[in-house]
Amino acid sequence: MRALLVLFFTMFLASCSSKLAYNNLDWWVYWYMDDYIELKDEQEEKFDDYLQNWLRWHKTSELKRYQSQLIDIKRQVKEGSLDSSSVYKHLVNARSHWERVRDEVSPELAEIAKTLDDEQVVSLFAALEKDNKEEEEERQEVLEKTEKQRLEDRVTRIEETISERIGKLTSEQKQIVRTYASQFIPTGEEWLKYRRNIQDAARKLFVTRKFNNDFERDLVALMQNPDSYKTAIYKQSSAHNMTVTATLISEVFSTLTDKQRETLLENIEDLIKTVDNFKG
Q: How far apart are alpha carbons 11 and 51 in whole angstroms?
């Protein structure tokens, strides 16, 4: 599930080689999934059939949605109407893209999941826990830094992300980034709790797969309702951070130079053309 979501949208936002990558998503999915589970021949055959169906669905149903949103963003940039409310709506819309993919693939993933043997299940959750441990180690490295160092790292990441789309930032824009960077609430610890919560729920569910007639329905419900495994603090912090992100972007947008606006429009147009190439 995670592999599909990451790959669909990573390739969507990729560079000049994106069409080649997108058209070979099946290979990329198998390459990524290999770190988590090794399917048996019959399972792999069924998964491949489903994957081809998902890719066809994605090309015919989803790409036009991405293109439509990008065209809308381009229009707002030209008109100078990209305020915090508009940015927030685009962030919500972007999340809905992920959710539609998740909801599309989850029933058939659940069907295949029911056929996993004990060794495959153990291997899957061992790999997921290995990821958790690595995330914990990375988080510990962050926590060993001072608050000032963590803020500077956040400022640098945000500046690099924005400059990739508009070019070199002005002094005023850098100050805007620094102002809002300090308002973000760290969510690393709560995110790890969420990962373990949903993984523990899935692990318990997999134990029942051989005798639970509702296993597939229950697993689909788990995959399609991940927010129910997030703590209240995590939800509140994420909502706050999304609002801060929208305000930050709109504030930077209001200070664009003519050159930066032109660069941004060119980047958006490149993305529109990229999606159009995917559709072809």
A: 16
What DSSP line would sit under the chain, residue for residue? -HHHHHHHHHHHT--TTHHHHHHTHHHHHHHHHTTT----HHHHHHHHHHHHHHHHHIIIIIHHHHHHHHHHHHHHHHHT---HHHHHHHHHHHHHHHHHHHHHHHHHHHHHHTT--HHHHHHHHHHHHHHHHHHHHHHHHHHTS-HHHHHHHHHHHHHHHHHHHH-SPPHHHHHHHHHHHTTPPP-HHHHHHHHHHHHHHHHHHHHTTTT-TTHHHHHHHHHH-GGGGS-HHHHHHHHHHHHHHHHHHHHHHTT--HHHHHHHHHHHHHHHHHHHHHH-
Which tens digit of pLDDT belongs to each residue from 12-40? 444 334 555 556 666 666 666 777 888 89
The parent domain of residue 55 ranges over 2-279
Question: Tokens representing 148?
Answer: 């000032």
d(CA 251, CA 257): 13
How many independent structural domains does the chain possess? Answer: 1
Residue-wise pLDDT for 214-256, tens only, equals 999 999 999 999 999 999 999 999 999 999 999 999 999 999 9
Q: Round to whole Å and give the CA distance between 178 and 187.
A: 19
User: What percent of the chain is predicted at pLDDT more than 70?
Assistant: 88
pTM of the full predicted structure? 0.88
N-term to C-term CA, the chain? 26
